[in-house]
Specification:
The structure holds 3 protein chains of 3 kinds.
Chain A: H1 15-21, H2 28-31, E1 35-39, H3 43-55, E2 58-62, E3 80-81, H4 93-103, H5 110-130, E4 155-156, H6 162-180, E5 183-186, E6 189-197, E7 200-208, E8 214-218, E9 221-224, H7 245-252, E10 257-258, E11 263-269, E12 292-296, E13 314-315, H8 317-321, H9 331-343, E14 359-362, H10 364-370, H11 372-390, E15 399-408, E16 411-412, E17 425-427, H12 445-468, H13 479-496, H14 505-519, H15 526-546, H16 558-582, E18 596-597, E19 600-601, H17 605-608, E20 610-615, E21 624-629
Parallel strand pairs in A: 1-2, 1-9, 2-5, 9-17
Antiparallel strand pairs in A: 3-4, 6-7, 7-8, 10-16, 10-20, 11-15, 12-13, 12-14, 14-15, 18-19, 20-21
Helix pairs in contact in A: 3-6, 3-12, 4-5, 5-12, 10-11, 14-15, 14-16, 15-16
Chain B: E1 4-5, H1 11-36, H2 43-54, H3 57-89, H4 103-106, H5 108-128, H6 136-145, H7 147-174, H8 183-209
Helix pairs in contact in B: 1-3, 1-7, 1-8, 5-7, 7-8
Chain C: E1 5-14, E2 23-33, H1 38-51, E3 74-75, E4 78-79, E5 101-105, E6 114-116, E7 119-120, H2 123-130, H3 152-162, H4 169-173, H5 180-191, H6 200-213, H7 224-228, H8 236-251, E8 256-257
Parallel strand pairs in C: 1-5
Antiparallel strand pairs in C: 1-2, 3-4, 3-5, 6-7
Helix pairs in contact in C: 2-6, 3-5, 5-6, 5-8, 6-8
Classes of the chains: A alpha+beta, B mainly alpha, C alpha+beta.
Chain lengths: 643, 215, 261
Amino acid sequence: MELRSNEPTGPIEHRWEKHKESSKLVAPANRRRYNIIVVGSGLAGGAAAASLGEMGYNVKCFCYQDSPRRAHSIAAQGGINAAKDYQNDGDSVYRLFYDTVKGGDFRSRESNVYRLAQLSVNIIDQAVAQGVPFAREYGGLLANRSFGGAQVSRTFYARGQTGQQLLLGAYQALSRQIDAGTVEMHTRTEMLDLIVHEGRARGIVTRCMKSGKVSAHIADMVVLCTGGYSNVFYLSTNAKGCNVTATWRAHRQGAAFANPCYTQIHPTCIPQAGSYQSKLTLMSESLRNDGRVWVPRKKEDVTKRPEDIPEADRFYYLEERYPAFGNLVPRDVASRNALYVTNDGLGIGPEVDGERRAVYLDFADAINRLGESTIRERYGNLFEMYERITGDSPYKTPMRIYPATHYTMGGLWVDYNLETTVQGLFAGGEANFSDHGANRLGASALMQGLADGYFVLPFTVGNYLGEVRTLPPLSEDHPDVKQAIARVEERIRKLMNAPDPKHAPEHFHRLLGKIIWNKCGMSRNKEGLEEALREIPKLRDQFWREVKITGSGETLNQTLERAGRVADFFELGELMCLDALKREESCGGHFREEYEENGEALRDDEHFKYVAAWEWTGNPAEPRLHKEPLSFEYVKPSKRSYK
Amino acid sequence: MQRALTLHQTTVGKKLIMALSGLIIVGFAIGHFLGNLNLYRGAEAMDGYAEFLKGLPPLLWGTRLLLLFAFGAHIASAFSLWNRNRKARGSRYKVHKDLATDYAARTMYWSGPILLLFIVYHLLHFTILPAHPGEVYRNVVEGFQNPLIAGVYIAGNLALGFHIFHGIYSAFQTVGANHPRYNDYRRDLAIAICAVITIGNLSFPIAVLAGFITL
Amino acid sequence: MSDQLLNLTLHVWRQNGPNDAGRFETHQAKDITTHMSFLEMLDVINEELIEKGELPISFDHDCREGICGSCGMVINGVAHGPQKLTTACQLHMRQFKDGDEIWLEPWRASGFPIIKDLIVDRSAFERIIQAGGYISIRTGSAPEANELPVPKKDADSAMDAAECIGCGACVAACPNASASLFTAAKISHLSLLPQGQAERQDRARKMVAQMDAEGFGGCTNHGECEAACPKGVSLRWIARMNRELVRSMVRAEAPIESRDR
């Protein structure tokens, strides 16, 4: 396996133009001869399928939900960045590029990031023209806000539902193409394997979740926009259905998986209330602007009501440890400190499995200073959501918060064209590893998904097809196709017929999640990772022995769906830990306790300035590592400090 | 099947027909009530008013034709929508709770047919087969002196009240008149029209039963 | 943070497939904490069912934070259950009392055929959007975003209408199983914006025609949809849809085709 990034050279601001000029095209009249499969219908997949269909290609789009509009992009609250500089505050494409490279802790590819910043501008134009009701100023022009500590106001938003509105824009464009007949939509259909023929991705094997029917879909190429793998932690802010299956199956067919250990933890989520908890809910980070984070100083106070703990006995640990930034330290710093204080036995809230994992986020000072009505204006909807879930009113008692995983920077390795190491297999959005390096900035996920979907893929797909011209026809009877179907059927059969069925797949998923969260979560160390690498295979074997699925595979069976996803999380989880173990440095979302300086992440550019792309070897314990060296010509690596 | 679709074939169009024909009928009901106020002025005034109307055949027959048309359209649309809406539910809920529906709205499909029967009876009673042709005042008073007949009229007018309360309110919505600033007036107006017609109409049989209007 | 344990009796609609007659099945939910969400309570029951070798209750769900619109069931006669402006996934057990009996039914509408248990097929909504619920704008051909100012009030109103999550509660709650609120919200969202004007006429006609073709009932202005809507989408959009339709049908030069399939 060879990693060729296929980046154009020359001045960074001209690279994308230059690349486009030197690429192959497919003439409009020829496009309908090509069949393209797009898996996933979120921002990246929906936008790509709609745009490719509109260009004249024959597109088949797949999603596991009952409607493409329900992909988890819909849950993004905050906003989308774009270097429009409407606020005249000195923003530019270069500055967005710079911030993104730096925010990614110098582990991303400069050319990709620059292109992302350039395209951010077009995304806003496109979305506005589609009827996305962004917030506006009284003069009728678009409003912006500053997000996640950015020094400029470049974030566009639609109330707290920016992801929803952008996804509806893409969904509407997709619906138009479905009506026009250029896109054939397959909902409630899950991709379970990739068909590779003569070294090229030529189709997928799916299971219809209504009828249980397993079938092959053959095409000229495959695009995966299937999101991230945060659910490997069991508890995350992802939707229950989010899974790694599509990308993992592709990985097993030869697509390298890059930087799996780069996962992002969001510091302000509603903590787990009990062992039955099925998911965690994110609360906007903006809450830290006015809330003060604290825990009791004394262990014996953790069960007291917060109102009964005197000021002197409260430990405002972020304010004490980081006087300059206080409660506004970056996401990873805030998250890790919450972990440390709760490790010290100072966590508050209900005990779950013998631990108290929560800290207070207190608005009492802000309410005293600004008045309840101002706070209501700023955070009313968030407070309401909190109360709906916990039954407590943040106006009266401090919120309880705790970090949770909500985004994964790692994913399928792709080159500048978003092509994986399997020819003809492309990956867009959170499913690829591309633009965020080791850490993603707030309001950048929507930007990347849409840039890939609307502007990068439609072009690079054409380049690929223009290059290969005509692919030999592939029949469903070909051994490559039959084998792929057989693999899927065999796996379903194995899941349905475990030798000693005892527990539902959720049971194993929870146990796996606990291992990954404790040992490959916010804070990692060699010992813990090695332990995890011993525990995961054992648990995986137990899973395959004891997983219990009732009912039949030939009908709608949600237990079977879940079991297949959990099985893949086991293999991915192992790779995550391996990657985290191998990366002996701390950077962005990856924090190794051995590599720190006064609590700050200590990057090792000399040895680890590379993308770790893992190749499947057939043995999950021994994947092969390939390194793509990273060079920084424009943004020179520097050290982060928030003291 | 592909065919050209016209407004009245859509559910919205059918509803619009119901609203407009309903408003015609409500308009008539207001006029009808105002004319009937002559009852309080005595036999001469009442019979004179009837004579006056009969003396204007174009007005009389014009109104009758318009009403016939409005009733026909109202009933045909109602029937078509009822049939469609019934099928749209499919299977019924075992447990069902209304959150917003008021009594008037819930009983439209009952108050409508009741009203139709009442109107047929009313036409037979006073217009087609009157006991004393030409003597409107006498027919009304003699009729209402019978508690059974007065009861039928009271019941019929209560049905009318409920029906037009939801009808008027609903018609605003159907013709597209919904504006947050004026929505309160919409309900007030529906209540006012409904109250005038219903209370007014109910007053006739009650006044006769109470002996306030006599022969 | 008071923590209470509930014991509940659930009567759940079980239906094996679209052609199965279906029936209620009674399950006991024991030691349910008030901090659980409603769907977590079902998760707990399902895990027990699986371990006992029985079939778990199938229900749609995904984001579990009230935005994807996947979940939806009629809980004691109310779509999404007793808490206002709340989807089933955000409903928590503290809304219930120890000893409560809970009836769980799927959305019932001819336009939403039952697939299994509490899962229904909402693809009719897809086809309504496909009929015209979009602005035709070619990728890459959009003009500069700030070229066309949109009055803040219009943008805010459009956003109010665009909050719809497409869950189908409006259909489930409507006495006529009408899809008017869903259809009207999308028509209104796009007709309120200057970008949506070019296709405004055709959009209303095509979407209403599709809504009718799917077998949904008509609107009788009861307001059940608005009351059940977890996002508070307003009845006023239905009035607006009616206005849009009349306007476009009267002005149109040629009638449109019916979309019966």
